[in-house]
Amino acid sequence: MAGLIINIGKFKLKNPVMMASGTFGYAEEFKDFIDLRKIGAVVTKTITLKPRQGNLMPRTCETPQGMLNSIGLENPGIESFIRDKLPILKKIRVPLIVSIASEGNAQEFIALARRLDKFKEVAAVELNISCPNIKINRSPSHQATRPQNQKLIAQDPRATYNLVRAARKNTKKVLITKLTPNVTDIVEIARAAKEAGSDAVSLINTLNAMSIDVDTRKSKIAAITAGLSGPAIRPVAIRMVWEVYRKVKIPIVGIGGIVDTHSALEFFIAGASAIAVGTGNFINPKASIEIIDGIKKYLIRNKIRSIKNIVGSLKI
Amino acid sequence: MFQAKAKVIKNIAVTQKCYKIVLLCHALSKGAQPGQFLMVKVDNGSEVLLRRPFGIHAANGRSAEILYEVVGRGTEILTRKKPGEYLDIIGPLGKGFSILDPRSSILVAGGIGVAPLLFLAEEIVARLPVCRTGRDGQAGQSRKVTSKPLVLIGAKTKKQILCEKEFKKSGCEVEISTDDGSKGFKGKVSELLKRELSTVNCQQSAIYACGPKPMLQEIGRIAKKYKIPAQISLEEHMACGIGACLGCVVKTKQGLKRVCKEGPVFSAEEIIW
Ligand SMILES: Cc1cc2nc3c(=O)[nH]c(=O)nc-3n(C[C@H](O)[C@H](O)[C@H](O)COP(=O)(O)OP(=O)(O)OC[C@H]3O[C@@H](n4cnc5c(N)ncnc54)[C@H](O)[C@@H]3O)c2cc1C
Ligand SMILES: Cc1cc2nc3c(=O)[nH]c(=O)nc-3n(C[C@H](O)[C@H](O)[C@H](O)COP(=O)(O)O)c2cc1C
Fold first, then answer.
1. pTM (predicted TM-score)
2. Which residues in chain A touch residue B90, judged by CB atoms under 8 angstroms apart?
3. DSSP string, B61-93
């Protein structure tokens, strides 16, 4: 087992397989299918300060080798999360990463990070500065963190730096920053997150996308555009992991279209220290457990002592 | 809830566009409630990725049946499954119907909406004490006529009527409506429901319905007018089927609810249309 242990900052994981935010609910939804304690870590659905209703239906549709989603960060808000979900998660004793977001408001991120700081069962906080499915709030107080002509914090290195830095100053928890692939240069964003004190980056959130029903000439998603996930985005994600791995010294959580051991291994070889299963959970709720077993077998078969030894081992 | 491999026993066309697949799987069949559904992986992921939701058409503790209409790629792939093949299935999922008063049930099915209602009808009939001996219809003389569930089946045309025989066999009274009048009442099944309610004393009735959204909305209105409880089975696009992705919500008086978890069966008066 020792061969699977990894560290993200001071957070020690028994294995490098996590569950991606928004695809694993609050973990208990999966308890009938897998032994939750075998999982490296669970990232919760993104939590905001106030409850959010999310977007109109339809919110999902299938696309070639992938799916679109525009949930709109539906969540009960931090207080209700702490009251109703956290005790259950604590009881399950699954290593927990809480994903947080706001509509570009640094103060809200800070409030969220602070609120979570005292809960021992929260091992780390993931800053979701990359959700494509929330409306933009352009009130003047938000301009410090979100430049006017841009949509997401994670699309601007300065905004990323400022936000991560503010969060860093306000929490002792391990900080993971989740980045968007909808940028020209992922390296400069990852670098900003690192310089601001993030312990790791999660790569990638969904790609901006769209799909049309030609009979009705309507978008298949009520919010018109949505986020693409699943195997379709895997090559993009792997390329981004590789680019960041080469240029920025920071642990990477590789995400995007991981459905089995093979696809997980690609990410490690490209430079990810850990991986997270997203859409793959919907296709096969046991995917994560099969991946953990598969990685073990791969290491044994290839006489590799530790998963760390294949991180970034791409031959060039 | 289980994830299990189910063996295909039979997969046959029942109308031009509808098929019935019989699956051998104790885990999925045992404990299944009418109105619950299964998430079926229709192929290994090369053609379609996500599972497809289907109501449980029948379950006897050993096998389970699905009645499905071919509408796209996933259901088309399903028609090609041969006896002996295995399907990866998750279930039974969601909250099904709660049988309120078995003495005067009215089941309303629109199109493929009959699928979960046959299972429900069989459960309702099985709970009628007098029916335990008379399931074949003949020995049912001792049964009061009013105790038989009334099933209203709506279809576009005569050719698309589903399960008429099966409902009768399980001890239900059946009325048909077709949009073109090729059989039974001419018009929508909700109109047929109105007609039925106006002729009987329906104060002790309970309505159970499954079908297209506009039909369910109309049934909600009718039920409200006659002050009888109505449970409706909703459909929404689903990705996970187990309450994790929040892709299939519906607006209710108590806020948003997940069709896959708190549903698919809801009390009609709960829904904000
Ligand atoms: C709880 C539940 C129970 C269901 N029970 C049955 C059943 O017993 N028998 C049956 O034939 N069908 C049932 N359906 C609908 C069935 O899931 C869809 O018809 C099926 O997923 C279509 O897959 P496809 O790949 O063939 O079509 P696609 O190519 O995916 O789509 C074809 C058409 O079907 C629509 N569709 C796709 N997915 C869904 C969905 N989840 N719900 C509603 N419409 C959808 C699309 O909008 C499109 O118009 C149920 C749906 C739900 C949510
Ligand atoms: C239905 C759905 C909901 C999601 N919700 C969130 C979310 O709340 N927060 C977040 O950071 N990412 C969210 N994501 C993005 C995933 O965590 C992941 O980054 C993305 O889907 C790519 O991975 P995948 O291809 O393995 O799914 C969501 C994805 C899906 C499919």
1. 0.93
2. 33, 285
3. SSEEEEEEE--SHHHHHHHT--TT-EEEEEEEE
